[in-house]
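User: I'm curious whether this sequence folds into something compact or stays loose and floppy. Could you predict its structure so I can see for myself?
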Amino acid sequence: MSQGDDLLNAIADAGGINAIDMLRHLVDLSGPEHLLDLDGGLLPFVLEALEGQGDEPDARLIKAILWDARSLAVAAADIPAETKNSRLEILDRIGLLLFPPVLGRTCRVAVRTCDLMDAFRVLEAAQRGASVRLSFRGDELVLTRRQASARVRARGEWPLVAVLPGRVIHELVHRAAALPHDLTIAGSDTMLHFSHFSIRCRWERDAE
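Assistant: Here's the prediction. I'll summarize afterward.
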């Protein structure tokens, strides 16, 4: 069976030309690996159709599809490590292609997930319900919650201050196993994205 036949079968299996359904099919762990190709085949056309979803309900569904696909890939014990790592990398690239920063100023940094989780655990003991603030100093992401603070080595640009609800700590620590080793944190107008996990935030100018 040719790759073209596989693509036609994927369309038929998805019940027609629906970009979100097609994305769900293409990232499914049981599907052929060659369909998960950003440089050819059907996937680039699907992503083009899905661009510009913003914070609409469809965007939340797309993020859930990507998150579930990543979680299943991380948990899978019956696929080779090289295949798993390649799949996770492609899923991360899809997320960044579909949900790039749209602020007037770029807010995007890369951190190690284990370092970020350590920082969140430091803040976890601070008063419950208090918001979490993320700012950038030199080469460190600074996280504060009332009087508690923690620093994480980071690379990128972060000229603003993101203010997040305190529940982000529990939600991300709970999902840590499904996050990539190297985590990209990116901001859009009203959201902050930790890989495929997104949470509403507000932005402030850095006072320093």
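Summary: DSSP finds seven helices and ten strands in the chain. The first helix runs from residue 3 to 13.
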